[in-house]
Amino acid sequence: MTQKEILIRTLKHEETPKVAWVPFAGVHAGKLKGYTATEVLQDEDKLFESLMEVNRLYKPSGQPVIFDLQVEAECLGCDLVWADDAPPSVAKHPLEGEDELVTPCYCTIPTKESGRIPMILNVMRRMKEAVGETTALYGLICGPFTLATHLRGNDIFMDMYDDEDAVKEFLKYCCAVAMKMADYYIEAGMDVIAVVDPLISQISPAHFEEFMHEPFAELFRHIKEQGAYSAFFVCGDATKNIEVMCETAPDSICIDENVDLIAAKKITDRYNIAIGGNIPLTTVMLHGSQQDNMKFVVDLLDRLEDKRNFILAPGCDMPYDVPVENTIGIVQAVNETDSVREILKNYVAQDDDIDVELPDYAHLEKPLVEVFTLDSATCAACTYMMGAANEAKKEFGDAIDMVEYKYTVKENIARCKKMGVPNLPSIYINGELKFRSVVPSREELDDAIRAVM
């Protein structure tokens, strides 16, 4: 049985001899060949060469061709900021600041000739020819809500309260963009269309049912009708939304380390939906040892009562600098689970024991806003929570202090542990948790700051 067959059987909810393995190596693929993130996301030959190296080294059941949630946004007028070790981020939102959210004047759909789409389609076709018989290929598209946020900015969160009908109409448009992108990618040979929508973790189940159920259900129906499999990929603490996500009927759901996979799988199993995840990106993959990665996989597999409907994967796009040996260790743990379990039976992970000093919250001169993120430059949910904090800083100026702690830094991991930060992203004000996995509106954050002034 090929690695691809293992993944396809998992998506068909059938038994497999071992679990499917999907390394979400986006910009990390470039690291393997010495290319920057900017190079690998813009150069066809460098992207193809890097993806082939991922395939050779990591022996995946499935792999994405590109992990960049800004492709559609760039085509639709968003300005991007590029980085050497991360995907680009949206710097300008075309519809931000408009008094009203009006869809009819903004109804362009990207074509096969728009932006970087021709390059991506060429690489998809080349990958299909090179490894398509043995590896399932993933086409990742930006989900409707995250695309809406790219275009509208943080204003979309207020729109959901102030103009519900306009938001619903706008999401229909974003869904139409997603369906067209799915068509392009399926035509280019993609086996699985992953709808990646990190911002879903930042809304309530009630808002999901009101605004998101219809466009996502329509999108997954469309993908199925085109003969491909689907994945609903969400980052952050989406625990509260797992069930409503299942009700949109994707073939699989992908989650990160913020979600208890064992508990979530009990829900997805009720709907007979596969679940993928959730190797921690920073504490294990980036900063852990090879043994840490192997042990995490073995322990996770041992905790699963039923391995049917399970896909092992990183929680999201792998950090650029993940050591190659760490991912190779994961491959070994998947393929030789029993022997790896025996090798590591007495292994205990080493604690870095980094001491951090917390502010004296009781005696601050002015309000302190602390934003704990995975990395606002790479994580969309973190980007928009950080955006809300930046807007507050503009509003209050020197009357407040504001700082971001990125989880990619070891010292900040220790800080999160000492603070007891439950999920990323989160906002603390004067040492108290105020917003956890929910992007606050401008009014909500301003009120929370004024309450401590």
Terminal CA distance reads 64 Å
* Global geometry: globular
What order do the strands of the largest sheet run in, or round the barrel if closed? 1-10-9-8-7-6-5-2
- Report the CATH topology name of the largest domain: TIM Barrel
| CATH architecture verdict of the largest domain | Alpha-Beta Barrel
Number of strands: 14
Computed over alpha carbons, the radius of gyration is 21 Å
**How many helices?**
19
Query: How much helical structure, as a percent, in the residues?
Result: 40-55%
Number of domains as seen in the coordinates: 2
Please tell me about this protein's structure.
By secondary structure, the chain is α/β, with parallel strands linked by helices. The protein folds into 2 domains: 3-343, Alpha-Beta Barrel (TIM Barrel), CATH 3.20.20; 361-450, Glutaredoxin (3-Layer(aba) Sandwich). The protein has 19 helices and 14 strands. It has an 8-stranded parallel β-sheet with strand order 1-10-9-8-7-6-5-2. The protein has a 4-stranded mixed β-sheet with strand order 12-11-13-14, with helices on both faces. Strands 3-4 form a two-stranded antiparallel sheet. α14 (290-303) packs parallel to α15 (324-335). The radius of gyration is 21 Å and the shape is globular. The chain starts with a helix and ends with a helix.
